[in-house]
Amino acid sequence: MATDLVSTVKGEAAEGVAADRRPPEKTVSPRAPSVRLLSLDAFRGFTMFWIVGGTSLVLGLQNLGHNALLDTIVKQLQHTDWQGLRFYDLIWPCFMLMTGMSLPFSYAKRSQTQTHRQIFLRVLRRVAVLFLLGSLRTSVQLGAPYLVELSSALQPIAISYLAAFLLMRQSTKVQAAAGASILAGYALLLAFVPAAGVPAGSYQRGANLVLSADLAALGRALPEGWGTVLSTIPTISTTILGLLIGKLLMSSRPARGKIRTLAAVGVSGVALGWMMNPYIPVVMKLWTASYGVVSAGWACLLFLVFYWAIDVRGHAKWAFPFRVIGMNAVAIYMAGTLVPLRRIVGIFATPIAAGMGAFGLLFEAVAVLIVEWLILYWMYKRQIFLTA
């Protein structure tokens, strides 16, 4: 299992995270499965950036003085209290989408030298590692062993990754129908199935079927009044959408057609999700159907920006710092819990920051980000990539 976690790759990056250089206008053909998207690495790094230090950086800027722009950004970098949608609520769906997007590229590359059974066995090992890493991260955070804790993104990613892989060789119609059916079935479940003391169709904090399911299955629930066992199910739909997008990007269709499709899917998702909101409220902590649709739409639009700028227009240099983060996303995500990097950096940065007045908070945030990025850059230069 340990050998699956750390791989030193010569000449190409680790599966699912690396991208080869190619001419900006060249489309990806099914006969060239080794070609990967620079934009996917950059988008993954951009998304991870806000988790590992981007939010602290903006808070440091806000500490220098409030203004409408910074205050709005800071608000968007906090989860919605219950109903509604902010940028930070899109981070998890973005990762679910990217998990699915990487599958066609990975499968096409590995199928050149491995049978489907061999690939499947590796997927099972990867799923197990991701699930256990999620357990380890949560257990360390909470100071007690938690084998199952689906509020950690790694465990839902593992489940959705396996579900998407099982659909890998099905037709596009079957994959799309499966994704839509899962989301629709989950919506009907919340709408028509009551729980003990909770009427059907309740989406209230502390009184919903998702919370009741956690209490019944795990004997515990999150203190905010929501659960995770049932709400992991609809995350599979977002990953299947990513699978479909990955197949689109690997196809021989011209880049313009791919852009139009991505834009149409994104805009349609955002519009449909908000149209559903009066009847099925947009609640991230329940992953309601409306939230699943609107968040997937926004995730598509966010990725489209990176795809258009990097892979279509060929403007890749600006995204290099994000690519460095994205190519070792698992490493930096786990390091945030397992390695007391902020405390170590703080030993040296805090005394300096104490004499900097209002700039102190910004200085500490920048110091942590620089150290994190330099470690990841060191790994990048040596082609060391931590993958499940």
Would you give an account of this structure?
By secondary structure, the protein is mainly alpha-helical. The chain has one domain (2-386). Helices cover 63% and strands 3% of the residues. The chain contains 15 helices and four strands. The chain has helices at 2-5, 38-62, 68-76, 91-110, 116-142, 154-166, 172-192, 209-217, 235-250, 255-276, 289-312, 320-326, 329-338, 341-354, 360-381, and strands at 6-8, 203-204, 207-208, 384-386. The strands form two sheets. A two-stranded antiparallel sheet has the order 1-4. Strands 2-3 form a two-stranded antiparallel ribbon. A hairpin with a 2-residue loop joins strand 2 (203-204) and strand 3. The longest helix is centred in the first third of the chain and has 27 residues, at 116-142. The chain is globular, with a radius of gyration of 21 Å. The termini are close together. The model is unreliable at 1-34 (pLDDT under 50).
What distance separates the N and C termini? 9 Å
Number of helices: 15
Q: Tell me, briefly, the overall form.
A: globular
Mean pLDDT: 89
Largest sheet: 2 strands, antiparallel
- The strand count comes to 4
Can you give the helix content as a percent range?
A: 55-70%
| Overall radius of gyration | 21 Å
Task: State the domain count.
Answer: 1
Strand order of the largest sheet: 1-4
Q: What share of the residues does DSSP label as strand, in percent?
A: under 5%
Order of helical and strand elements: HEHHHHHHEEHHHHHHHHE
